[in-house]
Design brief:
121 residues, 37% helix, 15% strand, globular
Length: 121
């Protein structure tokens, strides 16, 4: 079974990170590409631009509705299904995100979604 972890892109890489995946649509501010250690950048499994912009208007107030809407996007995404196929053989996958919000960010939702659906693979 694949273990899915999350980590801010600004944290140092660790040997226990396994396969490191950037899961932000935009490149993280202040991060030079040569300094970020990642195995893939999966823009297509992030929230749609419209959903992301709406969510950023009020992280806390929009959280529950954002989570439900993003999960629907994940369920209907061929990119997510293809990503799950690619990572299913990995022992550990670490999702890298840039948000300063540790309790209200899309990586948490993606982590839970992947953990629930990778069991079936």
């Amino acid at each position: 079974m694949t273990v899915v972890k999350i980590k801010r892109v600004y944290e140092d890489p660790s040997a226990t990170d396994g396969y490191r995946v950037l899961v932000d649509r935009l490149w993280p501010r202040g991060m030079k590409k040569e300094y970020l250690k990642y195995d893939s950048w999966e823009k297509d499994i992030t929230p749609s631009p419209e959903l992301r912009k709406w969510f950023h208007e009020d992280f806390v107030g929009h959280w529950n509705e954002f989570a439900a809407l993003y999960e629907k996007e994940l369920e209907n995404s061929p990119a997510v299904a293809a990503f799950m196929d690619r990572i299913s053989g990995q022992k550990t996958v670490t999702l890298l995100y840039a948000s300063k919000e540790p309790l209200h960010n899309h990586a948490l939702i993606l982590q839970h979604y992947l953990q629930a659906h990778l069991k079936d693979k």
